[in-house]
């Protein structure tokens, strides 16, 4: 009998990561949803500890487990009850009527297409748009069917959350609000290999940092560096599952924390400079 060598190496954030999932990081394989969820929790813990921000909320893949095959097979009703129950249970009794639209400028969703490609869809509450970040999308390509699916899913989310948070009194009013959001494609860096999941995590990273995502936001070297860093990071988090991030020394965790601290401080200075310039005009 062949012995199973697939062992658990990390259980942080109530998320179990086996050695086989980490091995995928070293082989250019499609990122598993549990690895993506762990990185989302990791980014969230860093930004919460350093500088709590309401700029962006990233919903984990476990929120919906969405694998989309085609616009015609999408059963949008299957998300409704679960999305409302999940939302209200996360808020707790004291915040049951809190508006997610007032609380966050952007709400992001990792979405898996055909169980083969990761993209990021973002509800922008400031501009009232639904933004799609796809590392395969360029000016020469457009996927109208894909855009229609994403539009349906996120408008249903807007509808459900508007009712759950009591900012709309009826389903018709909530649908009117959802229809105000227009879908737009945002050009982000293009992938040059099977790295859609890592590209998506780079976009999530920039959202947490409050940075604008453009075609020049990062390059292939940055993507390769993140994939390698994740490999070491997960092992490090697994060795010290209950240790606060600020107490990690001489490893990938410390590098990530210092990077986020420097970027957030830089953002603060840029905002202050812009404010001072505006006052001088």
Quick take:
By secondary structure, this protein is an alpha/beta fold. It contains 9 helices and 8 strands.
Question: How does this structure look, described?
Answer:
This protein is an alpha/beta fold and 281 residues long. Helix content is 47%, strand content 13%. The chain has helices at residues 19-25, 33-50, 80-91, 100-103, 144-164, 171-179, 196-208, 220-239, 252-280; strands at residues 8-10, 17-18, 56-58, 67-68, 106-113, 117-124, 129-133, 182-186. The strands form 2 sheets. Strands 3, 4, 5, 6, 7 and 8 form a 6-stranded mixed beta sheet that branches. The protein is globular and about 55 Å long. 28% of the residues are buried.
């Amino acid at each position: 009998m062949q012995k199973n060598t697939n062992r658990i190496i990390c259980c942080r954030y109530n998320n179990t990561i086996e050695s086989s999932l980490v091995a995928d990081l070293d082989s250019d394989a499609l990122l598993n949803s549990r690895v993506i969820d762990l990185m989302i929790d990791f980014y969230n813990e860093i930004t919460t500890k350093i500088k709590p921000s309401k700029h962006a909320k990233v919903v984990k893949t476990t929120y919906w487990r969405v694998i989309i095959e085609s616009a015609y097979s999408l059963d949008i009703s299957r998300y409704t009850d679960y999305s409302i129950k999940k939302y209200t249970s996360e808020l707790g009794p004291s915040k049951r009527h809190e508006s997610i639209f007032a609380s966050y400028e952007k709400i992001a969703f990792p979405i898996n297409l055909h169980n083969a490609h990761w993209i990021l869809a973002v509800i922008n509450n400031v501009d009232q748009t639904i933004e799609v970040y796809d590392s395969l999308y360029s000016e020469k390509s457009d996927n109208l069917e894909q855009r229609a699916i994403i539009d349906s899913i996120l408008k249903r989310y807007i509808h459900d959350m508007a009712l759950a948070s009591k900012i709309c009194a009826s389903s018709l009013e909530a649908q009117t609000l959802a229809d105000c959001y227009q879908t737009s494609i945002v050009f982000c860096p293009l992938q040059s290999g099977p790295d859609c999941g890592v590209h998506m995590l780079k976009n999530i990273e920039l959202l947490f940092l409050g940075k604008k995502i453009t075609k020049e936001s990062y390059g292939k070297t940055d993507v390769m560096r993140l994939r390698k860093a994740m490999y070491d990071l997960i092992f490090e988090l697994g060795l010290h599952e209950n240790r606060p991030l600020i107490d990690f020394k001489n490893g990938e965790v410390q590098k990530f924390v210092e990077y986020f601290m420097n970027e957030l401080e830089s953002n603060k200075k840029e905002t202050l400079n812009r404010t001072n310039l505006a006052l001088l005009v």
